[in-house]
Design a protein that fits this description.
Elements (H helix, E strand, L loop, with lengths): L2 H51 L6 H53 L5 H10 L1
Helix pairs in contact: 1-2
Length: 128
């Protein structure tokens, strides 16, 4: 294969990585936002039930408030899990994509002895 074909292959691999990792990040971020909306709803219910029970902590409103509080706790834990999972594709992309480009140019330098990027080589030949 020629080095131009390897360069095109690297671009295809980079685009595939960006699309796949970006879609994974978007999915987990979307789930995080949906969970955040559910937390807001559950917290609103909790506040309504607390206001309804007042100082009486023996009624049905207090039981509903406890359930809403437990729901907020569970949803908060789920939101934190989604936030953690959303960071993973970003870190992988931040490490793998530049490493792939560096690997391509290191192999290119090892095989041909040229260091300049391919898009600059075209300018040199047309300027002369």
């Amino acid at each position: 294969m020629t080095e131009l074909k390897f360069f095109r292959l690297m671009l295809v691999v980079l685009a595939t990585l960006v699309l796949s990792l970006g879609s994974g990040w978007a999915y987990y971020t979307h789930r995080q936002h949906l969970t955040e909306a559910a937390i807001d709803s559950a917290f609103g219910e909790y506040n309504r039930y607390i206001a309804a029970c007042g100082d009486n902590k023996e009624g049905g409103a207090w039981d509903l408030a406890q359930r809403a509080y437990d729901s907020v706790s569970k949803l908060s834990a789920a939101r934190d899990v989604y936030a953690g999972r959303a960071e993973l594709p970003l870190w992988i992309g931040a490490i793998v994509c530049p490493a792939l480009v560096a690997l391509f140019y290191a192999l290119r330098w090892a095989m041909t002895g040229r260091v300049r990027p391919l898009w600059l080589l075209g300018r040199r030949s047309t300027a002369g």
